[in-house]
Write a structure and sequence with these properties.
Blueprint: H1 5-70, E1 75-79, E2 87-91, E3 95-100, E4 109-112, E5 115-119, E6 125-129, E7 132-137, E8 140-145, E9 150-152, E10 155-165, E11 168-169, E12 173-178, H2 180-195, E13 202-208, H3 212-223, E14 227-232, E15 240-246, E16 251-254, E17 259-262, E18 266-275, E19 278-283, E20 286-291, E21 294-300, E22 303-305, E23 335-341, E24 345-367, E25 370-388, E26 398-401, H4 419-423, E27 439-444, E28 468-476, E29 487-499
Parallel strand pairs: 10-29, 20-25
Antiparallel strand pairs: 1-12, 2-5, 2-11, 3-4, 3-13, 5-6, 6-7, 7-8, 9-10, 12-29, 13-15, 14-15, 16-17, 17-24, 18-23, 18-28, 19-20, 21-22, 21-24, 24-25, 26-27, 27-28
Length: about 500
């Protein structure tokens, strides 16, 4: 049976109604999505505008503070926009310390850097600190404007600005005034401190700040191509960055403290300062002293030369007694060898203590009321202890020390010099090395094959790391960067910021 016409019209009307309802639903969903994402975009745009407004405000504040700090205009009004949850905060939370190795009376230069923070609620913080503008965002710290610092030919000039005051919260205006008396007195102190520093070969700049990472990048790019910087953010409440500037070429101690890596083309001077290896025993009412043979070589990227005592010797030829550095008549001598290396070269030293197939009597003397009979080696036998860190042979038996490292002064017997006596003026009264920045010392233990540095104590006996000692000096082939040492020209301009009295 065929349905009637009215029945077909009713079904078509229901279908149209359902379609209309679905259409309205889709429109509402689309409107909701648009509203949601549109609101998010508006929020992001609003935040971005606020961030740009904060940057612009701080640039204007920077200009006003520079007038107060560096011109005759000792007082100025600072204007802010307190809307949208923006606020101002002054904090004493940053400091710069500059150190020179310019002698015992050269003390560190401590530069306070109070900060003016301009914060946007839920957005970035823009900070005036040390004369520069810095910004903290969710993606990291950036520098908006650098401080007024200059480094040239070894002289670091820094007219710093220290912010002091107690203003905080939402403000419209603040009053900035230079503390003239404090600024003059502190700048005078820096000048007097510099008078006590002379011929410094190293400058170290340390900044403690929440913006330590960008301070480090700025200093590294600003001060010198010879600078290095290390960032320590392990403590988020005390971020610290240190930049070191040194004369000449940079190098690093590596290989478990048994070699150095030279970063640039350089001339290296190696001086064997002395050897101390011998055996002693009672002999005809006195003592016999056999001077054990010791040979040494220089290893650069695995290639060895034997320059001492009268070389260089062909490293492919057998080692002979002529290359022995440890004889009664030569053991106090010093030998120097200069050589050039390319950037990236690893430099280490090789030392061997040998058995002896034939000792020859070379004379006697009287020491502490007894006769001592001395014997040099005329014919080398086989190696007893060979130290070659580059080849993995007894790497614990050699140690590389630099300026300030401690050298255990181990007492010796049987007329052997300890390390303090061999090193002489290179070791101070506290047992620490006093070297130039471009110097290192290689210390060898050649009688104890199982020696470790931690086992070198004050007790008499091995290991004592005095068996062979070599001083290395690394120079840039183009000469030192700084003539006459580093210099610091510092002034501090303190600006006190307070709420207006109006």
């Amino acid at each position: 049976m065929i349905p009637s016409t009215p029945t077909r019209r009713q079904g078509r009307g229901q279908s149209n109604l359902i379609g209309f309802v679905l259409l309205i639903g889709m429109i509402l969903v689309a409107a909701s999505v648009t509203l949601y994402f549109g609101s998010a975009m508006v929020g992001d745009l609003k935040g971005e505008i606020q961030g740009q407004d904060a940057e612009q405000t701080m640039r204007e504040i920077d200009s006003r503070l520079s007038e107060v700090a560096f011109s005759d205009n000792l007082e100025h009004t600072l204007a802010f926009d307190p809307s949208e949850g923006q606020s101002v905060r002054i904090a004493d939370n940053a400091e710069m310390v500059i150190e020179l190795n310019g002698g015992p009376t050269c003390t560190p230069f401590v530069i306070p850097m109070g900060s003016l923070h301009y914060e946007s609620e839920g957005q970035s913080t823009v900070t005036y600190q040390g004369g520069g503008i810095w910004k903290e965002t969710s993606s990291g710290n950036v520098m908006i404007s650098p401080p007024d610092m200059e480094y040239k030919d070894g002289t670091l000039t820094f007219p710093s600005v220290n912010i002091n005051g107690s203003a905080s919260g939402q403000v419209r205006t603040l009053q900035a005034k230079k503390n003239l008396e404090y600024s003059r007195e502190r700048s005078r102190e820096y000048s007097q401190l510099m008078e006590n520093c002379s011929n410094a070969s190293r400058m170290t700049v340390t900044v403690e700040s929440r913006y330590a990472d960008v301070w480090g990048k700025y200093l590294e790019s600003e001060v010198s191509s010879n600078s290095t910087y290390d960032l320590d953010n392990t403590n988020p409440n005390n971020n610290s960055v240190t930049v070191t500037i040194s004369e000449g070429v940079n190098y690093g101690v590596g290989g478990d403290d048994s070699e150095i890596s030279v970063t640039e083309n350089a001339t290296v001077s190696a001086t064997a300062l002395g050897t101390e290896v011998s055996s002693e025993f009672p002999y005809y009412g006195g003592m016999a002293k056999r001077w054990a043979p010791v040979t040494m070589g220089i290893v650069t990227d695995g290639e060895q030369t034997r320059p001492w005592p009268d070389g260089p010797y062909d490293p492919g030829s057998p080692i002979s007694a002529e290359q022995n550095l440890n004889e009664r008549g030569t053991q106090l001598s010093e030998w120097t060898h200069d050589f050039e290396v390319e950037g990236g070269t690893t430099v280490s030293l090789r030392a061997t203590q040998w058995s002896c197939a034939d000792y020859d009597y070379v004379g006697a003397d009287v020491y502490d009321g007894s006769y001592w009979y001395h014997y040099n080696c005329d014919d080398l036998g086989s190696p007893n202890v060979r130290t070659d860190a580059s080849a993995g042979e007894n790497p614990e038996n050699v140690r590389v020390l630099k300026d300030g490292d401690e050298m255990p002064v181990i007492e010796t017997r049987y007329r052997q010099r300890n390390a303090e006596e061999v090193l002489g003026p290179l070791l101070n009264e506290t047992g620490h090395l006093q070297l130039e920045d471009n110097q290192v010392v290689f210390l060898f233990e050649l009688t104890d094959p199982d020696a470790t540095w931690v086992s070198a104590t004050d007790d008499i006996g091995d290991p004592n790391y005095n068996d062979a000692i070599v001083l290395l000096e690394i120079e840039d082939q183009e000469g030192k960067e700084v003539a006459g040492g580093f210099e610091i020209r510092l002034t501090t301009n303190e600006v006190v910021i307070e709420a207006n009295s109006e």
